[in-house]
Amino acid sequence: MSLPAIWYLPTPNHTRTVFAPPAYQRLLDNFALTANPGPSGLSAQQVEEGIGDFEGLVTGWGTPPLSPKALERAGRLRVIAHSAGSVKHLFTPEQVENQLLRRGICVASANGAIALNVAEHTVGALIAMSRQWFTHSRNIREKGIWHDPPIPRSSQHLRGAVLGLIGASTVGREVIHLLQPFDVTILVYDPFLSDWEAGRLGVEKVELDEAFRRADLVTVHAPKIPQTYHLIGAPQLKLLRDGAVFVNTSRGSVLDHEALLAEARTGRIQVQLDVTDPEPLPPDHPLRALENVVITPHTSGAGQYGYHRIGEYALLALEAFFQRRPVPGQVDLKRWAQLA
């Protein structure tokens, strides 16, 4: 019996980043793999010209969107394993409706693997900001202050806190999982979260303003879709208590940055942003200068552990599909509009 024919579109550099050597060897052993020799990514035209021979595709960072012509020519195509996070850039809504769904093409994403790194960053940020590590470090290094009296020696840190979690996404759910040992009360705002699912997760489902009003710490994991543009603005930020921590590792557009700037300038909240709008922020943007705002350069998804799980997710998706088992990371194409 011949092995399924798979076209591997990412570059060798991508392979080194997301595949541990044993996982990539398993990919070579279990499939008739045609790999992009690199070092550059393939063009959309190259994909159109070559796609007809393959039953499966592996895509990744830098893979061009699949054109309607490419999908029309992909008569044998049955599965696409995306060795990265979001698949939204690969297809238009029309392609999803008229080609992928109609033909029953399975699309799987390694979004769950990236979520492992983002969730770790989030929990680290919640701890660091609530304990004001960056402020203490800066005071000692730059100002010679051993302990700044305005910073309370005892305040609400992560353990025992009330956490507002905005968006029960893949990342949000991994954050919930990581927080289990911390005796945290978790309030979740997510209009797509059912009461049953909230009970299963052990969280309290609340409205957006209530999450901000009651929480000691707030972390954002909402998708970038039209409905979430500036979801969080002045009305919500003003509800945060003095000393609260606000963390955003989702997308910058979810947050009104002018409203955040106004609130952060009061000095009464601690802010950690791994994403901004625009990204990066201009060098002279005033958020960069505020001591209670810590900005990281969209690195929360990075990390060898999660990166190697990306390759593993893609491999497992292909293996499961061709063995007719449930496909891990399969994208619900019927919910395309709600996907990040």
Overall mean pLDDT stands at 95
CATH topology of the largest domain: Rossmann fold
Assigned CATH architecture of the largest domain: 3-Layer(aba) Sandwich
Q: What's the structural domain tally?
A: 2
Which percent band covers the strand fraction?
A: 5-15%
Give the overall shape, derived from the CA principal axes.
elongated
Q: What's the CATH class of the largest domain, please?
A: Alpha Beta
What is the strand arrangement across the widest sheet?
8-7-6-9-10-11-12
State the helical fraction. Answer: 25-40%
Span of the ends, CA to CA: 39 Å
List the SSEs and their pairings.
Elements: E1 5-8, H1 12-18, H2 21-30, E2 32-35, H3 44-50, E3 56-60, H4 68-73, E4 79-83, H5 93-103, E5 106-109, H6 111-130, H7 133-143, E6 162-166, H8 170-178, E7 185-189, H9 195-201, E8 204-205, H10 208-214, E9 217-220, H11 234-237, E10 245-248, H12 257-264, E11 270-273, E12 293-295, H13 304-322
Parallel strand pairs: 1-2, 1-3, 3-4, 4-5, 6-7, 6-9, 7-8, 9-10, 10-11, 11-12
